[in-house]
Amino acid sequence: MDVVRLGIIGIGGMGSNHAGYLKAGKVPGAKLAAVADIDPKRLEWAAKNLPEDVKRFETSQALIDSAEVDAVMIATPHYDHPPIAIAAFAKGLHVLSEKPAGVYTKQVREMNEAAGKSGKVFALMFNQRTTPTYRKLKELFESGELGELRRTNWLITSWYRTQSYYDSGGWRASWAGEGGGVLINQCPHNLDLWQWTCGMPKRVRAFCQFGKYHNIEVEDDVTAYVEYENGATGLFITTTGEAPGTNRLEVTCDRGKVLIEGDSLKFWRTRVPVSENTATSQKGFGKPETWKCDVPLRGGGGGHQEVTRGFVNTILHDKPLLTPGEDGIKSLSLSNAMLLSAWTDDWVDLPIDEDLFHEKLKERIATSTYEKPDVESKVMDVEGTF
């Protein structure tokens, strides 16, 4: 195979964004061959804005069965990600899915099992893994430069959204349509980066507020505390109701501290490990000598296009994936655990009780009294929102 024929399932905001850079030829070795959407208006958009040879289908299954594609990109509402992926694997197609992997881990585990049995390439659109600051943080951990983790604090309140955002689609901001709020929609990126660099905690205690700033039934404000196996702790705070907001990650380890804010990474390195200094220093107030280091960062971060290029290169050249699809269950486990903790008003151990979470989610769907306002669905420009 010299060219991967790609089909995009769901050509709303994100799907049309992917179609744009594929149409422009920004992913070598890839050809946009087909699109699918259940909304006739989106197919009309495709007819006007995409090349004539791009086939159009009214359902995901029709595209999957068409033999027109070698791989699919899934950009539909969240609940649909696993079943569409499973159907694609069954047809022998490679899969690149938008985040999140799904809404509940039980469903995503089935998707991961189908991917493994198929032998096909499976990737998730965790485009923020391409960001130089987070790549460097992971490298510092893996090299041992930071030593053992002690504490993490992530204040990520820059995901501001207006009421019109939630009103823009009938599926948004409901338990039945979206399966959650800020944790399932905006924060999969941050939760993925958090576990990718710092590892998974062993238990979670979270406090979620539902519809605090918006007319929605799902969470738009979250404060979570986590504990790791080695005794390290972490705090994760997020919301879609504050402006201008902050995106600040501080990681403290035995060999120093890293602060990521915006596009900058600052590293304070202790000359000796803190644990050693604490045990051996004869000075009661004697902090270890600390050096502030300028850490070089590579590249500018290729975002969605880099993830798609990596996916295509894995198919064509067997290159390692930056964003393996099977990793998606990890960040979803964190968001599921935070919601379950809030619903039960208690600690939640990881891995979570998948059946209990699914049961609680179904209860909220069944007892929901939330009604969406009568607003016409629209596709929003997602450029610059990632």
The percent range for strand residues is 15-25%
Number of domains: 2
Alpha carbon gap, first and last residue: 32 Å
According to CATH, what is the topology of the largest domain?
Dihydrodipicolinate Reductase, domain 2
Mean pLDDT: 95
Order of SSEs:
EHEHEHEHEHEHEHHHEEEEEEHEHHEH
Which CATH top level class of the largest domain fits?
Alpha Beta
Main sheet: which strands, in order across? 14-13-12-11-7-10-9-8-15
CATH-assigned homologous superfamily of the largest domain: Dihydrodipicolinate Reductase, domain 2
Report the count of strand segments: 15
Put simply, the count of helices is 13
- Class computed from helices, strands and strand pairing: alpha/beta
Describe the protein's topology.
Layout: E1 4-9, H1 13-23, E2 30-36, H2 40-49, E3 55-57, H3 60-65, E4 71-74, H4 81-90, E5 94-97, H5 105-118, E6 122-124, H6 132-143, E7 149-156, H7 163-167, H8 182-185, H9 188-198, E8 203-210, E9 219-227, E10 233-239, E11 247-253, E12 256-261, E13 264-270, H10 274-280, E14 290-294, H11 303-317, H12 328-344, E15 348-349, H13 354-366
Parallel strand pairs: 1-2, 1-4, 2-3, 4-5, 5-6, 7-10
Antiparallel strand pairs: 7-11, 8-9, 8-15, 9-10, 11-12, 12-13, 13-14
